[in-house]
Known about the structure:
By secondary structure, the chain is α/β, with parallel strands linked by helices. The protein has 22 helices and 14 strands.
Amino acid sequence: MRHLTLASALLTSMAVTTPAIADSHLxxxxxxxxxTVHMHxxxxxxxxxxxxxxxxxxxxxxxxxxxxxxxxxxDNSGEAINLLLASGKLPDIIGTSRIKDVVNQYGPQGAFxxxxxxxxxxxxxxxxxxxxxxxxxxxxxxxxxNMYYIPYLPDGKYGRAYFIRYDWLDQLGLDLPQNVDEVKxxxxxxxxxxxxxxxxxxxxPYFARQWEELIRLVTLWDGRSSGSDTYHDFYVDSGQIKHPxxxxxxxxxxxNLAEWYAEGLIDPEVFTRGSSAREYLLSENLGxxxxxxxxxxxxxxxxxxxIDSFVFKAFAPPxxxxxxxxxxxxxxxxxxxxxxIGGTNKHPVETIKYFDFWFxxxxxxxxxxxxxxxxxxxxDGKAIFTDAILGTGRPVNSQLYELGAQLHARGxxxxxxxxxxxxxxxxxxxxxxxxxxxYLIDQFLGVAFNEDEQAVYDKYWPSIRTYMLERxxxxxxxxGDVEADWDAYMGDLDKMGLNDVxxxxxxxxxxxxxx
Length: 515
């Protein structure tokens, strides 16, 4: 019952104090008010007025959103927002993936409304949230000090973890690997010891759904792969902005990963197999170790009914070459996704009140769990899913997207309690293990550029990033030698403007968070 106790404790810890608000006060206007909305995300390339969550919000607030999404024929939100901006006709509300950079660039020019005064005067729940989390307010503020969007705010601490086949370890008489050398020894045993027992040397020791989770392993050599939950991101080291792909630990890590790849310890199709890797390699009894999400990966222990003794569980981050145990990935408290108010919106007060609704206790439950009485019921002060969600056997998050809940192109505060309810005992056990070890490290929350800083970033960074990733893949695949190429690589980065980019980012960081 330990996992049930942990789940109860976690649910209790997620409670957030917000101003009380009577149900009657949820009605924002007496007569229905229509507001147009562009809402675009890869998972839902257009707003759907029939989502049950939207229908419930409409009933409670009397605000009726009308779909005005541009670019719904593409799953690329960047293309869609560019088409919208080019049209010159912004709807009342704009919600999209990666809206932060767009609003911080064009908000000061009048394309989007500043929200500070609107929140102060008309949005008590948002005001209370930002007073409690000034770090998030700083992170989403533009260079002029204004907030131009309400973000999607993930909840909880833990995201990904190291997973390994415990049954394979037992089969081969091995202990859990405690450091990078032991990880290599275990992967070699998986490669050579026929732990799946089929007489073939077909095991894939390390695999990843996202190839970037291979690069994550450079942390075992004291490198970094990212500073946030966005791949390839900058990171902060003692107040200084750096990029992980220009560090000595990264170089050492890539050198070793190239050796592991050449020795058959890494999936030979790691760069091409894609998101199906976990499903295929585990269900076919081929995969040995990965780095992936707690809840969804733990769910594969259902395969124990098909594969004798199958156990795939989290284990503590192995110690690096210097003895450090870190988990680089964690749930970032703020995403660059969310929604904003168009600069020509004629009802900004009603719109900010609508935004505020989703931060009220009632709105937060709806946006996280669906419609009360249908998708969840209140038990001991907590929203608990009904069988309409948990009894289908389908992924809970996919079901919620279909209802209009948990949409990342809407500004809302996630409730981690939604995920705990479909996290099995293996996931909760792993979370407890990581919680005890305190392996998580701080994250870079991003910066807001002024016009000059943005110009330098836009001029240099895209080509630098492309070059970094090209060299990275070439080194691991063996078409280059990171040791032999390193000095020339660093010289190229300097010529391409990396130090200029870092200087502008440092300027923005010091202004935003304090030097």
